[in-house]
Amino acid sequence: MKLIKDIESIYFEAKPLIEKRWQEFVELGKNGNEYELFSELCFCVLTANWSAKGGIKAQQEIGVEGFVKLNIDELEYSLRKVGHRFPKARAQYIVSNRWIIGTIRHLFVLPYYQIREFLVKNIKGIGWKEASHFLRNVGYGEVAILDKHIMRLMLTNELIKSIPKGWTKNRYLDYEKRLKNALENHFNEPIGKLDLYLWYLVKKSVDK
Description:
Blueprint: H1 2-31, H2 34-47, H3 52-62, H4 64-69, H5 72-81, H6 87-96, H7 104-107, H8 112-122, H9 128-137, H10 148-156, H11 169-187, H12 191-203
Helix pairs in contact: 1-12, 2-3, 2-9, 5-6, 8-9
């Protein structure tokens, strides 16, 4: 498959950067406090229909405590400042989701698929892709982040016939399984980490 060859062509070049980023994810999942974990959840809310680079900028602007303590107007102002496409709606989501602070780490006793489903059902602004993004960013390797860049790679490599306009649970799990089956055994790496190689392949950078 062309995709495997493409990843192999950048694998050793990208590996040091990706291993460093992966350890940061694992460290956050193991030792991050509730505010830090909530900040990462907010990052995933903010990147939906925007960008990872933008989400990182927003995290830096707002700060870990800002996600917890700023009011809606202050959050909206900060998001406008960094150029978010939906500052008002995302500020509302962040404030609405604060009820989960103090609960996030307790979720980690559950299997990843139960945590993901819980987040999709209960957190505003979090769908299957965003919940997967959060779990990967706290060290869960079992999940694929099926964003538009990954979808295009899957389409080009005939792993899927079309790019969906929205996600159902069954469709997300089906596409995730296809990507896992195509790549995990060959590289002996979990799909969550391989996502960073796919991202490097597209963007020539390792964001998160």
